[in-house]
Amino acid sequence: MKLRYFIYSTIIGSTAVILSSCDDDMTSDLRSEARIENFGFTVESPAVYAENGTDIVRPAKTFKVRTLDDPHHFYVRISPYLDPKEYLTDARPTFCLSMGATVTPEMTLPQDFSDLDKPVEYTVTSGDGKHVEKYYVSWTESELKPYGEGMGDGEQIIYKTYTEMGYPGQYGTWPGMDGDALKASAGDLMGFPAFCGKDRIVVFSRRYAWGDSGSAGAAYAMAANHTYAFMVYDVKTLERTGSLNLGGISPSDVVAITSDWVGNMVMAVGRKASGKTDFYYWTSVTDSPVHIGQAPVSIDISSNETDAGSYINVAGNITENAVIAASAPRTDKGQHYKFFVYRGSLDAEYTIIETGHSALDQNQFQMISFFGTGETAPYLVGDSKPNGSESNGQIQIHLNNPDGSNRGTCDYHKTWFNGAKHDDGEEWWSRTGRWLKRNGARRPTVHAMVLNGMPYSYFTTGTDWRIRGLLTNQELNDIVPGYPNFGFGLCTKDKNPKENKDGGIWLYDSFGCMADWYFDDETQEGYVAVWTDRWGMNMFLITCYE
């Protein structure tokens, strides 16, 4: 039968639009095909739930499916960092068939696509019943996303308590208690993580470096112990490995550490009494520290030994060009230091940034992080919104222009994550957790990140039982109020049998957390480390595979 094809044209405004149609002869030809279409084919790995059946340990993940050389063999594209046995053993396919065709086994049935030696076989029968074709589905490694398209997935690869990481004390003991249990615990073990090279991470503890008098609301006095001031771990296993070459630097003089965007560790040295700050960097833990210069101000503004108010954050590559953001004396204008590094040396000139948000209200902590090293780079602000003298304002994350003007704001308290809103009825704990005895207790740490050419915002907050974290895109004003999760979040493991409704991670009692990250543009992979006080370390892998 001859196919009859009709063409129509019409005018919409000043544009000619061509419309086409065909009669049943084409339909008849299509019904004689037995084909799985090479578009719209995906495979979904189901979500994994905790023992209570409601909390998600691992969310569902969808993989693209494509053919290579053989149009009858489809491949699930999976990142080389993921285990096919874990994700593809019980996965559900979705695909399109040619007109009227049927398939066996049924598409709704989950299958094991993980066995390369035994691909899943599908038999497709044409709509007219005259033709039968065999198709096979297995898996292959996915490809890297082009530069500028951002990250693929973030996977939590390991988590350990601080006692499992070799620190003394009792994990989970609340230092607010009295008696022997209090004295036996390591207490407020504030860990500042920093990557040092591509395979090591260093954790710095001020309490072990400086000692703690127990004043200003600290749980109890504690003598300095430099054995635990700097601990070095393997990034993938969090096993202790070697020690940090301090090159004569005394832990008692160290204020803070962090790493730059490519994994070099940066250190600020100089307590308040010195009135100055020396900056050093390491490319590996065994290297001698490289001195890049001295600033005529001290970034040590802590009101007590356990306060996390003094910090540094680095944008760029410290061995080349970089910007160091550091805490400045607290003011109602929210002031911070901005130091410039050119060709690996600290510029004598520095800038004072004013965020426009007071650093004297609520938890008296504020942190900023730049999206680049240029004069026009925007920056993130982690702050707490005032809400009365004795109550708690919610965490707010701001995106500011270089002149301090606001570009977007997210009320962290109002966001959704892991399928539940953070407004869980416990406003004191769920907003910021300002403990009146300790200024700077629970705080929103922020990290401006550039991953595979795309800007992201990572921020964390500690409340008095829950630690939450989100990785999302830069333009905060585009995602309010829904604020969907674009990457990954800390909140996927339940370390306490208490009920956990909102996706938080129960940590007995915590006064916050600190984080660090790096990304390798060449391999398009990196890590995010989050230290949660009174608990330990979470490590996430960042990849840019489709």
Shape: elongated
Report helical residue fraction. Answer: under 10%
Major sheet: order of its strands? 8-3-6-7-11-10-9
First-last Cα distance: 45 Å
Number of helices: 5
Number-wise, the strands total 36
Q: Kindly state the mean pLDDT as a whole number?
A: 76
Rg result? 27 Å
Class inferred from helices and paired strands: mainly beta
| Biggest pleated sheet | 7 strands, mixed
The stretches of 5 or more residues where confidence is low (pLDDT under 50) are 1-23, 173-185, 415-438, 463-469, 473-510
β-sheet strand percentage:
35-45%
Question: What's the structural blueprint in terms of helices and strands?
Answer:
Elements (H helix, E strand, L loop, with lengths): L4 E8 L2 E8 L1 H7 L11 E4 L2 E2 L6 E3 L2 E7 L5 E6 L5 H5 L3 E3 L7 E3 L15 E6 L6 E10 L12 E8 L18 H5 L6 E5 L4 E6 H5 L19 E5 L19 E6 L5 E5 L7 E6 L7 E6 L16 E5 L5 E6 L7 E8 L2 E10 L12 E4 L8 E6 L10 E6 L5 E6 L4 E2 L2 E2 L5 H4 L13 E8 L2 E9 L3 E8 L31 E2 L6 E8 L4 E8 L3 E8 L3
Parallel strand pairs: 7-11
Antiparallel strand pairs: 1-2, 3-6, 3-8, 4-5, 6-7, 9-10, 10-11, 12-36, 13-14, 14-15, 16-17, 17-18, 18-19, 20-21, 21-22, 22-23, 24-25, 25-26, 26-27, 28-29, 30-31, 31-32, 32-33, 34-35, 35-36
Describe this structure in words.
The chain is mainly beta. Helices cover 5% and strands 39% of the residues. A hairpin with a 6-residue loop joins strand 10 and strand 11. The two termini are 45 Å apart.
